Amino acid sequence: MYELKQVGRQSYYINSPAKIGIYRQTESDVYLIDSGNDKEAAKKVLKIAGQNGWNIKGIVNTHSNADHIGGNQYVQKQTGCPIFASGVEGSFTRYPILEPSFLYGGYPFKELRSKFLLAKESEVADCSSPDFPSELELIPLPGHFFDMVGVRTPDDTVSLADCVSSPSVLEKYGVTFIYDVAQYLATLDSIETIDAAVFVPSHADVTTDIKPLAAFNRAKVHEIAHVIEEICTMPQDTEHVIQSVFRAYRLTMTAEQYVLVGSTIRSYLSWMKDSGKLDMVIGEDSLRWQARGVS
């Protein structure tokens, strides 16, 4: 863990729980693509940079989940480097309490205010800033989170952030986080059309062919939707659907898993209603979901 791997003439990644990309702009100047999950990860990144004689010139965040921005504050304090983020991701990075609040749907209780969901705040500029390295191409990858982006470096290496997960990750976690299911599926379609020398997903092996992994993730989305449809053959409230998905995938209930899986299932319910697979049934004191055409 935390080994440095070279994947292109100017591109590297640090093998960590969420891969940290490195773009070597010059012999001595580098940009990080994400910063790891916490201060300890940031210390390892700085050590690797020092061992290679590299100056960290900036950080480009693909999105604002805590495991991707958790090292921001420490690296920024140690180096004074700028941090760049796109759209809503910049707001979540400046004010990281937004992530657990958004996931929970209210002020997060103590167990949700841990480094797993709550990063340290950092100063952020938008990627439209004139200081952003213009040779880096940003690739919109919405769906997993609000304004997530991928990054193409000049040597044709594409960092894909969290838009795909490996089969082993999907098997382990069953239901991985998705904010907007329709956009997520559209992103899977779009990455299949990208030509690149190499792809670096944050939670899957580096590959030269992303199509099989995109197809596998797409199939998992439709599998989960089918499970939800089966659960909703009779009208069910949201909490019952979440509970049933936990049972179907034998997931372990923790505070973090409750909000991550719960938020994802709510997103599935919205997508399935909007696409005509589910009906929303509102009674005097409840909102329930029922598979379309079942009575």
Record the SSE blueprint.
Elements lengths: L2 E4 L4 E5 L4 E5 L4 E5 L5 H13 L3 E6 L5 H4 L2 H8 L3 E3 L2 H7 L3 H7 L20 E2 L10 E4 L8 E4 L4 E9 L1 H7 L7 H11 L6 E6 L7 H21 L4 E2 H11 L6 H20 L3 E5 L4 E5 L4
Parallel strand pairs: 4-5, 5-6, 6-7, 10-11
Antiparallel strand pairs: 1-2, 2-3, 3-4, 8-9, 9-10, 12-14, 13-14
**Total DSSP helices:** 10
Strand content: 15-25%
Quick check: average pLDDT? 97
Count of beta strands: 14
Main sheet summary: 7 strands, mixed
Question: Which stretches of 5+ consecutive residues score pLDDT under 50?
Answer: none
N-to-C order of helices and strands: EEEEHEHHEHHEEEEHHEHEHHEE
Find the CATH topology of one domain.
Metallo-beta-lactamase, Chain A
Q: Helical amount among residues, as a percent range? A: 25-40%
Radius of gyration: 20 Å
Question: Would you kindly provide a written description of the structure presented here, covering whatever features stand out?
Answer:
- With 295 residues, the protein is α/β, with parallel strands linked by helices.
- It contains ten helices and 14 strands.
- Among the domains are: 1-135, 4-Layer Sandwich (Metallo-beta-lactamase, Chain A), CATH 3.60.15.10; 227-291, Arc Repressor Mutant, subunit A (Orthogonal Bundle).
- It has helices spanning 39-51, 66-69, 72-79, 88-94, 98-104, 167-173, 181-191, 211-231, 238-248, 255-274, and strands at residues 3-6, 11-15, 20-24, 29-33, 55-60, 83-85, 125-126, 137-140, 149-152, 157-165, 198-203, 236-237, 278-282, 287-291.
- It has a seven-stranded mixed β-sheet with strand order 1-2-3-4-5-6-7. A four-stranded mixed β-sheet has the order 8-9-10-11.
- Strand 4 (29-33), helix 1 (39-51) and strand 5 form a beta-alpha-beta unit.
- The longest helix is centred in the C-terminal third of the chain and has 21 residues, at 211-231.
